[in-house]
Write a structure and sequence with these properties.
The complex is a heterodimer of chains A (327) and B (306). Chain A folds into two domains: 5-98 and 181-323, 3-Layer(aba) Sandwich (Rossmann fold); 108-180, no CATH class. Chain A is 29% helix and 25% strand. Chain A contains ten helices and twelve strands. In chain A, strand 1 (5-18) and strand 2 form a beta hairpin. Chain A is globular, with a radius of gyration of 20 Å. Chain A starts with a strand and ends in a 5-residue tail after the last strand. By secondary structure, chain B is mainly alpha-helical. Chain B has a domain at 93-304: Orthogonal Bundle (MetI-like fold). Chain B contains 14 helices and no strands. Chains A and B meet through helix 2, strand 6 and helix 3 of A and helix 9, helix 10 and helix 14 of B.
Chain lengths: 327, 306
């Protein structure tokens, strides 16, 4: 895992301002994304996954801020840049060319007043990747064809509302890919789509990563997406990484009770249709600093120690780490 | 296309309705135009003779039909007081109103949109408080007050600009500011609120993720989406200004449509009043249609729906 790293999150802490108080939603996480690898970040809604992603390319909402830690970008020449410390101008120069992003809701993430071709072309224009408008247009049409849009010349002038959800997400992917980025961040890319479209989009993301030898950070709450797409997985709960492992290892040998809960919440074909396992309770609404393990209140295996002491990250084997007292 | 045709048909109906209403209203209000026109010491016979020559002794429906027939041919009748064709009076006055309107609209929209955008982008910070206060002042202070204040400051205190309109471009500045003042305030307020609605839209995150600075994203993508209601408002303001600004024109002595209408009321000049009201209605309905057309062209969602 340590060889050939592209991006490293080092003790990253993101806090939300609430009534003049900074409340951490991502509390000191460490992650690394290797070149040409797809990394999954899994967790329930509201556990800080999107905040983690948006802190990388500085599109956090105005009430959120990176309060600690570093986001280390390993350049091709071996030097390292801390993205968290960059000015707005410098980070924007990397957005679209080094780091691209695909969002959850493709309808509202596209400008409803602008035809999709021009929205994609804008990336080329902002970064002056192509100065000739005619050539830029051709590039966009080629990219539309690559992401599987039928009749790309015709579709160039379409507006977002004229396309289906799956098409719109393909447009978002085309927009992300046109600057040939080194890292694709996909924030719940298939959550808003039909299940039948989901696998097409996942296959498309996989194909794009392979053709452009690109890394990806896939944010999802869906273990199915992880198994279909990812090489390595981080499981996050309440802003803390609970378990991390290569995807095969995690599915074969899940150790943290939260990971087990997430895995058993996937309906199985041969399983009893009357019974679907769930994780009891919900994510606490009010974030308070708590001495014990973040998950202890919903955990099925908790012991007394869980309430009074945070667990450290334990190494299980080569690439498998878990944060739990019981394991 | 059929929508446009329907709107034009609607416009004709509205104008017809306006003609009927103003025609009836002017006949109901007391006062005999023939008597007003002649001096006090004339006998009944003279008044009757004049009434007959002005066709005021005919039955009302017949009077209306002959007026309507004339209007369709472009003849709005003769002004009683000015002894000139109403249409030519309106066409002489209109260029002044047009000049005033263009300047006032340019002032109002430049200032209004710029301050609105700055307010929205710095909302709940100092520039926002400042511009919100100013725009409140803009919408709430009446035109005559603004006009008098401007005259006091720029003529009496600073001696920078002429007191009234004298034909020069310089003397049009104060009237334009006075007339545009209210519009600037309301455009600023609408721009602020409309743009604020767009600020937390996810497509702005997409724009930033593409590499646009936050300010560029707001100006290129946000403002485009925020413009629709603003454009509708601007078209209505434009037609309002074009139909004549009675107060501004009176204060600054500009012989535009507003003054013409005022004169028509003061002299009980029925054909002239009918003419100016009809012209106003025409400009306003046309402005509405143009506003619809613009938002139709701008918003792809409306375009697809047809």
């Amino acid at each position: 895992m340590n060889e050939d790293i592209l991006l490293e999150l080092n003790n990253l802490t993101v806090s939300l301002r609430q009534d003049k108080e900074m409340i951490p939603v991502v509390s000191g996480i460490n992650m690394s994304i290797s070149r040409r690898k797809i990394v999954g970040l899994v967790g329930e809604s509201g556990c800080g996954k999107s905040m983690t992603a948006k802190s990388i390319n500085h599109i956090l909402p105005s009430i959120a801020r990176v309060t600690d830690g570093r986001i280390l970008w390993h350049e091709d020449n071996g030097s390292v840049t801390d993205l968290a410390a960059l000015s707005e101008k410098d980070i924007r120069r990397r957005c679209g060319t080094d780091i691209a992003m695909v969002f959850q809701e493709p309808m509202s993430s596209l400008n409803p007043m602008m035809c999709i071709g021009n929205q994609i072309k804008e990336v080329l224009m902002i970064h002056k990747l192509e100065r000739d408008p005619v050539k830029a247009r051709q590039k966009v049409i080629q990219m539309l064809a690559d992401v599987g849009i039928p009749e790309p010349e015709l579709r160039y002038r379409s507006f977002p509302h004229e396309l289906s959800g799956g098409m719109r997400q393909r447009i978002m992917i085309a927009m992300a890919m046109i600057g040939s980025p080194k890292l694709l961040i996909a924030d719940e890319p298939t959550t808003a789509l039909d299940v039948s479209i989901e696998s097409q989009i996942l296959r498309l993301i996989r194909k794009m990563c392979d053709t452009y030898s690109m890394s990806a950070l896939i944010i999802t709450h869906n273990m199915g997406v992880v198994s279909a797409l990812c090489d390595y997985v981080y499981v996050m709960y309440l802003g803390t990484i609970m378990e991390q492992a290569p995807v095969g290892e995690l599915f074969k040998n899940p150790l943290h009770p939260y990971t087990k809960g997430l895995l058993s919440s996937i309906p199985k074909i041969e399983g009893n249709p009357e019974f679907l396992s769930t994780i009891p309770g919900t994510i606490p609404m009010k974030r308070t600093t708590f001495k014990g393990c973040e998950f202890c209140l919903r955990c099925s295996d908790d012991i007394k120690k869980c309430f009074f002491e945070k667990a450290g990250l334990k190494k299980v084997n080569a690439d498998h780490y878990v944060r739990c007292h019981v394991v | 296309m059929t929508a446009l045709f329907k709107r034009c048909l609607g416009m004709v109906l509205v104008l017809l309705g306006v003609m009927v209403l103003i025609f009836i209203a002017l006949r109901i209000i007391p006062g005999d135009p023939a008597a007003v026109l002649l001096n006090e010491h004339v006998n009944e016979a003279t008044i009757a003779r004049l009434t007959a020559t002005m066709n005021l002794d005919r039955p009302l429906p017949e009077q209306f039909l002959s007026y309507l027939g004339g209007a369709l041919k472009g003849d709005l009748g003769q002004s009683y007081y000015m002894r000139q064709s109403v249409l030519s009076l309106i066409l002489t006055a209109f260029p002044y109103t047009l000049k005033l309107t263009i300047l006032a609209a340019a002032f109002a929209w430049l200032i209004g949109i710029a301050t609105g955008v700055i307010s929205a982008m710095h909302h709940d910070h100092l520039p926002d408080y400042l511009f919100r206060g100013l725009s409140m002042f803009g919408v709430s202070v009446p035109v005559f007050m603004v006009a008098l204040l401007l005259q006091y400051i720029f003529y009496f205190r600073l001696s920078l600009l002429p007191l009234v309109y004298d034909g020069s471009a310089l003397s049009m500045i104060l009237p334009a500011i006075a007339l545009g003042w209210n519009s600037a305030g309301s455009v600023a307020r609408l721009t602020r609120s409309s743009l604020m609605e767009q600020l937390d839209q996810p497509y702005l995150d997409t724009a930033r993720a593409k590499g646009l600075l936050s300010s560029q994203a707001v100006l290129i993508h946000g403002l485009r989406n925020a413009m629709l209601p603003i454009i509708t408002m601007m078209a209505l303001q434009l037609s309002g200004m074009l139909s004549g600004a009675v107060i501004t024109e009176s204060v600054f002595g500009i012989s535009g449509l507003g003054r013409l209408a005022l004169l028509a009321v003061q002299t009980r000049d029925m054909p002239l009043l009918q003419g100016t009201v009809l012209f106003t209605a025409f400009v306003i309905t046309l402005g509405n249609i143009i506003a619809d057309l613009i938002s139709f062209c701008l918003d792809p969602r409306v375009r697809t729906k047809k």
